[in-house]
Amino acid sequence: MGKPRPLKSNSGKSFQGSIVLGKGFILTPAEAFALINKDPRNKEVLYPYLNGDDLNNSPTQDPSRWVINFLDWSEEKARSYPDCFDIVERLVKPERFYTER
Asked: How much is the pTM?
């Protein structure tokens, strides 16, 4: 037997998806909706985060998690969403500070 090779017919049909680099970015739906209710602008940085279970096991394909995503924004712009920035600062920053690279 030879080595397995990618099928050209499958090219562009799927990809790994996003990798969230820190558990502190991930929210429950209730947490995300509370942030949106508190300040509707937060919807600009909160995104549904679907996984295979959400897609395959839920008839509605509702996300079981949401994620804070400041894209490639500057810290100054991210800080203009104080509720979300505070979560990241409290939960992600310490994790990154103590992680050896």
From this structure: 0.78
